Automatic annotation (TrEMBL):
<feature type="domain" description="Dyp-type peroxidase C-terminal">
    <location>
        <begin position="241"/>
        <end position="423"/>
    </location>
</feature>
<keyword id="KW-0349">Heme</keyword>
<comment type="similarity">
    <text>Belongs to the DyP-type peroxidase family.</text>
</comment>
<dbReference type="InterPro" id="IPR006314">
    <property type="entry name" value="Dyp_peroxidase"/>
</dbReference>
<protein>
    <recommendedName>
        <fullName>Deferrochelatase</fullName>
        <ecNumber>1.11.1.-</ecNumber>
    </recommendedName>
</protein>
<keyword id="KW-0479">Metal-binding</keyword>
<keyword id="KW-0575">Peroxidase</keyword>
<dbReference type="InterPro" id="IPR048327">
    <property type="entry name" value="Dyp_perox_N"/>
</dbReference>
<keyword id="KW-0472">Membrane</keyword>
<keyword id="KW-0812">Transmembrane</keyword>
<comment type="function">
    <text>Involved in the recovery of exogenous heme iron. Extracts iron from heme while preserving the protoporphyrin ring intact.</text>
</comment>
<dbReference type="InterPro" id="IPR011008">
    <property type="entry name" value="Dimeric_a/b-barrel"/>
</dbReference>
<dbReference type="Pfam" id="PF04261">
    <property type="entry name" value="Dyp_perox_N"/>
</dbReference>
<dbReference type="InterPro" id="IPR006311">
    <property type="entry name" value="TAT_signal"/>
</dbReference>
<keyword id="KW-0732">Signal</keyword>
<dbReference type="Pfam" id="PF20628">
    <property type="entry name" value="Dyp_perox_C"/>
</dbReference>
<feature type="transmembrane region" description="Helical">
    <location>
        <begin position="41"/>
        <end position="63"/>
    </location>
</feature>
Length: 436
């Protein structure tokens, strides 16, 4: 975790309603939708703002909302698939996410990988537009809008040997070094291919996950998969930086697209090497378990010393508001540093790391409790940078040497993936690598 964040998109929260048994007339509503495509339904709602009503619900279930709820902007918001960069990098935090890695099947190579990326790109484009999958759609998201769905694809270190493309493997994709805080499960790390799915509706996100898994067919098999979440859009009275499961405002100093050097820090330049990575980025993925039982035993003042920021509002311990620059030299009446020397926020500051910066876009996760009631919960850390050797690695090495937060977290899985630039109209993601 670092002292950086992506602003959340804010939309009105959907109305809560009790649920009643389906009325006998529900079948009439269902029949009225026959022949009405999801695309047509969405375009009609988008143009008129009509309330979907009972017919928009899942007819056949034992209960439905007592009152009709409109397709709000939460559902109607759409991210474009084609573009200079892949989606899912600069967009705001999404309420639901799935991270999944695939390994190519035995005997599958460059030809099979190209066909798979072509299928995946076509499916991602359709789903992000609120349309059904290309074929054999499960109808899981039939009644929903795009819900800001994004699908992002990347290549792992092992992909290039599997496809005979070792000469095209970027030097920046060299394996991450070992860190003293690592307790990595190799079965949940790395992979030939990586997919990031995010949406503001859980069904829309799962629909994409299932569609892409089915698209993989015999060409690839799932190596690992992780599920995450963030605060729902509209859950707070005003836009604010998200909190993590430790209750801390997490990510105040994230790079912003409005900053003049943002692209330089986050994206490979159009003239960069290898050429197929132009306008792409590198994603470091870490499953970071939070030792919440230990953390929650600390008094709030001790938690704040560990982070270097106030828990209530995210302001630095040196004073001001959340966005006030941290005064690293400020001392108290006894001459002690107000922001402790090993505070997490101090160590991760770019100006304390030679300007190293990452765009963090994480999800929280909770995978249940063990037999003693200890939660398996924490952060699915995803960070983006133009070069992980200059971005993630030096910061993590410094954290290894003395971060006060290290006592309360454990890095359990890890991966590094090359994420090429966005696909142009008529292209699929990775086409310049696989057909270049």
């Amino acid at each position: 975790m670092t002292d950086q964040s992506v602003p959340e998109a804010r939309t009105p929260a959907p109305e809560e309603g009790a649920v009643d048994a389906l009325q006998e007339g529900a079948s009439e509503h269902a029949s009225s939708l026959e022949g009405l495509s999801r695309r047509k339904l969405l375009s009609t709602v988008g143009a008129t703002g009509l309330v979907l009503g009972a017919a928009g619900g899942a007819v056949g279930y034992a209960a439905r909302p007592a009152e009709a709820t409109p397709l709000t902007s939460v559902g109607a918001d759409q991210v474009m698939f084609h573009g200079k960069h892949q989606p899912g990098i600069t967009q705001g935090l999404q309420a639901r996410g799935h991270l999944v890695a695939f390994d190519l099947a035995a005997g599958a190579g460059r030809k099979e990988a190209a066909a798979l990326l072509r299928r995946w790109s076509q499916t991602a484009r359709r789903l992000m537009a609120g349309e059904a999958a290309t074929q054999d759609d499960t109808d899981v998201a039939r009644d929903a809008g795009p819900s800001s769905l994004t699908v992002t694809f990347g290549f792992g270190h092992s992909f290039f040997a599997r496809t005979g493309l070792e000469k095209q493997r970027p030097s920046a994709l060299d394996r991450l070094p070992d860190f003293s805080s690592d307790h990595l499960d190799k079965k949940r790390s790395d992979g030939d291919l990586w997919v990031q799915i995010g949406a503001n509706d859980a069904l829309v996100a799962f629909h994409a996950l299932r569609a892409l898994q089915k698209d993989a067919g015999s060409a690839a098999r799932i190596r690992w998969q992780m599920n995450g979440f963030n605060r729902s859009p509209g859950a707070t009275a005003h836009p604010m930086t998200a909190r993590n499961l430790m209750g801390q405002i997490d990510g105040t100093r994230n790079p912003k697209p409005s900053e003049p050097d943002f692209d330089q820090r986050i994206f490979v330049p159009s003239t960069g090497e290898p050429s197929w990575m132009a306008n792409g980025s590198y994603a470091v993925v870490r499953r970071i378990r939070m030792l919440l039982d230990d953390w929650e035993k600390l008094p709030v003042t001790a938690q704040e010393d560990v982070i270097g920021r106030r828990k209530a509002d995210g302001a630095a311990l040196s004073g001001g508001t959340e966005t006030t620059d941290m005064d690293l030299d400020k001392t108290d009446a006894k001459g002690n540093l107000v922001v402790p020397i090993n505070a997490h926020a101090r160590i991760t500051r770019p100006d304390q790391n030679g300007g190293a910066a990452m765009l963090r876009r994480p999800f929280s996760y909770h995978d249940g409790f063990d037999g003693d009631g200890v939660p398996d919960a924490g952060l699915l850390f995803v960070c983006w940078q133009a070069d992980p050797v200059r971005g993630f690695v030096p910061v993590q090495r410094k954290l290894d040497r003395g971060d006060a937060l290290s006592r309360f977290i454990r890095h359990e899985a890890s991966g590094l993936f090359a994420v090429p630039g966005g696909a142009a109209e008529g292209e699929y993601v990775g086409q310049r690598l696989l057909e270049g």
